[in-house]
Design a protein that fits this description.
The complex is a heterodimer of chains A (314) and B (136). Chain A has a single domain, classed as Ribosomal Protein L22, Chain A. The radius of gyration of chain A is 20 Å and the shape is globular. Chain A is an alpha+beta fold. Chain A has seven helices and 14 strands. Helix content of chain A is 26%, strand content 27%. Helices cover 38% and strands 0% of the residues of chain B. In chain B, helix 1 packs across helix 2 and helix 1 crosses helix 4. With 136 residues, chain B is mainly α. The longest helix of chain B is centred in the C-terminal third of the chain and has 16 residues. Classes of the chains: A alpha+beta (314), B mainly alpha (136). Chains A and B meet through helix 1, helix 2, helix 3, helix 4 and helix 7 of A and helix 2 of B.
Chain lengths: 314, 136
C-alpha cells in the first residue's frame, strides 16, 4: 500500500473519521448536525483547521458569532462527510478541493493523484438556524433542503403562493383553512421545490418555482404508506399518468421527512436509469446525526426520522 | 462525547486568533499550540457612488425591513454595504424581504432584478429606480 496514504497534515489530536461504504445506487445518505449541540471551542477551532483559507475568510465575513459558527459547521460537515467515503486510503478532509458549477452549485474537484481515486459522489448541503444537513449519493445529482417546521412566514401565504408557486399548488394551499396547517404545508412545498432546483444544479434563480408543480399522490396501497411525490411541468391539469412526458417524476425522485421532530427535510435525486430506476422504486435512505470526530448516530428507522412523502426505504 | 474542560470555555468570536488550548480530546493528549494569524475581515469593496444612489432614508428603511425579516439582534450592524448572505438570509428570507420591500414602497420587482440584489444598497438603489419609474 502506498505509504503516502498515511500522511496526515492535520492535527494529530483528531481521531480518524469512521470510514464508510458509498451509498448504493438509488440510495441517499443524509447527515445532519445540530449546531446547538456543538459547544466546544476547541472542537470548533479544530473544524476551522479543516477549511481552506478562502473558506475561513467566508466564515469570518458572516455577521455575528452564531452565523460564523453555522458557516463553519457547514463547511466542516461537507469536508468530513465526503472524506469518510474514501475507504481504500484515508483522505484528509482538509485536502478536498471544491468548485462551483456555472450556476453556483458546489461540487468536489477531484485531484489527480496516484494514491487517490475520484469517487462518483454527489453532495448537497442545506442549513437553517438549528440544523445543517448534507446529502450524499453516487452517480446521480442530489438536492436537499431543510427548514424548521415552526418557521413563521411574515408575508401573507396566499399572496406568497400566488407570486411564486404554480396554479395547482396555489389552489391546494388556499383551500387550507387552518393558518398553522397552511403554513406547514407551505414550508413543505417550499423545501421540496428548493430540493428539486438544487438537484437540477441550477438553484432558485435559474428555475422559477412557478414553472413546475409538486404534488403529493394518494398512496396506491393502504394509508400506512406516506403519499408518493411527483414533480411535473406546471399546468392547470393534475397529471395522473406517469407516462406523461411532462411528468418529470420519471427522472427525479422526491422524498420528504420530518427530522429530529423539528425540521422538514426534502430530498431530490435523479433516477439512475442504468439500474432500472422506475417510477415506483423506493429511495433507500440512511440518516445519521453527527458531530464530526465526536460521534455519529444512525437514526434511520427511529422517531428522529418520519417519512412524510415519497417512497422511502429506511 | 468529547468535551473540553467545561465551564471556563465560552465560544469566542472566530475573528480572534485561534490559539489551541492544551485540552485532551478523547484521551489523546498534547496538541501543539497553534495560533492562527488573526483573521481580519476583508474591507468591503469600494463602490463609486454615482449620483443616482439611493437616499439614506431609503437605505435605512431597507435595513429596518431586513432586520425584522432576519430577526437580527439590536446590536448587530446593518448598513448599505451589508450583504444579505452574510446577514444569514436564505432564499426564503430573500424572497420575503423583496415582498416586504414591494409592500413598503409600492413597487413591483421582477425576478431578474431581484436576483441581482446582493447588498442592502443594491436593494435601495433598485427601489428608487422603480419608484422613479412609477412617477415618470
Amino acid at each position: 500500500m502506498n505509504i503516502r496514504c498515511f500522511q496526515r497534515n492535520f492535527s494529530a489530536a483528531l481521531p480518524p473519521l469512521v470510514p464508510l461504504q458509498l451509498p448504493s445506487p438509488m440510495e441517499t445518505h443524509l447527515w445532519y448536525i445540530l449546531p446547538d449541540e456543538v459547544k466546544s471551542v476547541a472542537l470548533l477551532n479544530q473544524y476551522s483547521e479543516l477549511l481552506s483559507p478562502c473558506e475561513r475568510e467566508n466564515v469570518n465575513r458572516m455577521c455575528g458569532d452564531q452565523l460564523k459558527k453555522r458557516a463553519l459547521l457547514a463547511r466542516a460537515l461537507v469536508r468530513t462527510t465526503i472524506a469518510r467515503y474514501q475507504m481504500n486510503c484515508e483522505i484528509n478532509p482538509r485536502s478536498l478541493k471544491f468548485r462551483k458549477n456555472i450556476y453556483g452549485k458546489p461540487e468536489v474537484e477531484w485531484q489527480n493523484e496516484d494514491n487517490f481515486s475520484p469517487l462518483p459522489l454527489h453532495f448537497n448541503i442545506s442549513h437553517t438556524t438549528s440544523m445543517i444537513a448534507c446529502g450524499v449519493t453516487v452517480n446521480v445529482p442530489i438536492g436537499i433542503d431543510v427548514e424548521e417546521k415552526q418557521r413563521r412566514i411574515k408575508n401573507n401565504i396566499t399572496a406568497f403562493a400566488q407570486r411564486y408557486f404554480s396554479p395547482y399548488e396555489v389552489k391546494l394551499l388556499t383551500a387550507i383553512s387552518d393558518p398553522e396547517v397552511q403554513c406547514q404545508e407551505f414550508i413543505k412545498l417550499w423545501t421540496l421545490k428548493e430540493a428539486y432546483v438544487k438537484a437540477l444544479g441550477k438553484g432558485f434563480s435559474a428555475v422559477p418555482f412557478k414553472t413546475f408543480t409538486i404534488q403529493f399522490r394518494a398512496p396506491a396501497i393502504r394509508n400506512l404508506h406516506p403519499p408518493g411525490i411527483s414533480v411535473s411541468e406546471a399546468s392547470e391539469e393534475i397529471v395522473e399518468s406517469s407516462n406523461d412526458p411532462t411528468n418529470l417524476t420519471n427522472n427525479w425522485q422526491l422524498a420528504l421527512l420530518e427530522v429530529a421532530g423539528s425540521h422538514y427535510a426534502a430530498i431530490c435525486m435523479e433516477r439512475d436509469k442504468t439500474v432500472g430506476g422506475e417510477a415506483n422504486m423506493p429511495m433507500k435512505l440512511t440518516v445519521r446525526k453527527t458531530i464530526p470526530f465526536v460521534e455519529d448516530v444512525c437514526v434511520s428507522g427511529t422517531d428522529a426520522v418520519l417519512a412524510l412523502g415519497g417512497i422511502i426505504e429506511q | 462525547m468529547a468535551s473540553t474542560t467545561g465551564a471556563s470555555l465560552k465560544f469566542t468570536s472566530l475573528s480572534s486568533s485561534f490559539k489551541q488550548t492544551q485540552v485532551p480530546l478523547r484521551g489523546v493528549s498534547n496538541v501543539n499550540s497553534v495560533s492562527f494569524p488573526s483573521l481580519r475581515m476583508r474591507p468591503g469593496s469600494l463602490r463609486f457612488r454615482v449620483s443616482c444612489a439611493a437616499k439614506p432614508e431609503t437605505v435605512n428603511k431597507v435595513c429596518e425591513i431586513v432586520r425584522k425579516q432576519l430577526a437580527l439582534p439590536d446590536d448587530s450592524s446593518v448598513t448599505g454595504e451589508s450583504k444579505f448572505s452574510t446577514l444569514g438570509a436564505d432564499s426564503l428570507d430573500t424572497v420575503e424581504i423583496v415582498m416586504g420591500l414591494e409592500e413598503e414602497f409600492g413597487i413591483s420587482v421582477e425576478e431578474e432584478s431581484a436576483q441581482s440584489i446582493s447588498t442592502v444598497q443594491d436593494a435601495a438603489d433598485l427601489i428608487e429606480k422603480l419608484m422613479d419609474k412609477n412617477c415618470a
